[in-house]
Write a structure and sequence with these properties.
Elements: H1 2-68, H2 72-83, H3 90-105, H4 108-116, H5 124-137, H6 143-150, H7 159-174, H8 178-188, H9 196-208, H10 216-256
Length: about 260
């Protein structure tokens, strides 16, 4: 009897499993197909990415060779195409495009436009591109315009932030705001993550700036110097006054002399 019950239970389990597979088995096939398709798609994307990078590397080398040979128009066209491709190599191509514009045409505005294609405050090469563009703009821009242009980079505790502060301080000194320039250069001597070159230039800039204005205490001594000068004048007047009676006495003596 026990064997019969076991056979019945086994039959029921098989029947239940068959019904479940018939009802949900299609989802298992779909999941397997998605898994296989995902792996195949990933392999395809990796292959395409590698092929694209290889093609862009060849194009970049061609543009760099044209730049080295002085064929600036060809180099600019090829670098421009790469810079607009929105790929991993485009920020580097934008920087080389800016170099081509400056070297071949001395076109500062075109170089700034090229750098701004890669400029941002999120990636190292983006920050470098932003700093390069700011240096070029500093020839004509005011300190306030540079501060707006550099934006959050001025508040960043990094080497790029230190370079941004140095540029703004130098512009302030150029505009005659030596007090602000002195304040920023002093800060750059002690802030963290400041490159050694920035620190050394800050020390030299502080030595070259005009002396700080006199303090209140020193200004308070100024009237005493004027007072001393006034006392000297008064002493001179007293001496002159004392000489007057002497000359008068001499005249009186002359008048007493017999004719």
């Amino acid at each position: 009897m026990a064997d019969i019950f076991e056979e019945v239970e086994e039959g029921l389990r098989q029947e239940r499993a068959a019904r479940l597979w018939k009802k949900y088995g299609v989802f298992a096939y779909i999941a397997a197909a998605l898994l296989i398709g995902g792996v195949a798609l990933n392999e395809y994307m990796q292959s395409q990415r590698a092929q694209t990078l290889e093609e862009q590397s060849v194009a970049f080398e061609s543009a760099d060779s044209a730049l080295s040979a002085g064929t600036f128009d060809l180099a600019a066209d090829e670098f421009d195409t790469l810079a607009r491709s929105d790929t991993e190599i485009s920020p580097l191509a934008a920087n080389f495009l800016a170099q081509t514009r400056l070297t071949g045409n001395a076109d500062t505005e075109a170089a700034i436009t090229a750098l701004e294609m890669a400029a941002n405050a999120d990636t190292p090469i983006g920050k470098l591109s932003l700093m390069k563009a700011a240096y070029l703009k500093s020839e004509t821009a005011s300190r306030a315009e540079l501060e707006t242009y550099l934006g959050s980079l001025l508040d960043e505790e990094s080497q790029f932030g230190a370079l941004a502060l140095e540029l703004v301080a130098a512009k302030a000194a150029q505009e005659g705001d030596t007090e602000y320039a002195r304040q920023v250069f002093n800060e750059l001597r002690f802030l963290a993550n400041v490159p050694d070159g920035v620190t050394q230039r800050s020390v030299r800039a502080l030595a070259a700036l005009p002396a700080a204005p006199a303090t209140d205490a020193a200004a308070g001594d100024a009237p005493s110097e004027d007072g001393a000068a006034t006392a000297d004048e008064m002493t001179g007047e007293s001496a002159q006054t004392e000489e007057i009676p002497d000359s008068g006495a001499a005249g009186s003596s002359d008048g007493d002399q017999p004719e």
